[in-house]
Amino acid sequence: MPKPFRSKIKKIQEALERLRKEYEGLQKKKIETDTTLQNLKEQLDELKKRAEEEYGTSDVDELKALLARWREENEQKVAAYQDHIASIKEALDRIEAQTDEESAS
What we know:
Layout: H1 3-55, H2 60-104
């Protein structure tokens, strides 16, 4: 067999070996990706199930609306609590002022 022909065959074999290794790597990556995808699907299904049980829905838009409503309710509760604390302080200040006046007399 002539030397140039053997050289071509060797280059083809080397190229095929590189391609085989690349294919094996891609195949391994595909299997890993498929496994990850399956795990993520299972996690998503579990989260949807929990959301249905806890909040009555697993719809993202409905969950966002619930969250927005709860935040607004919390803000209102905090504001009401702040008002309540302020009224208690005012009452204490009036009592203290009245006590000071009675002590001064």
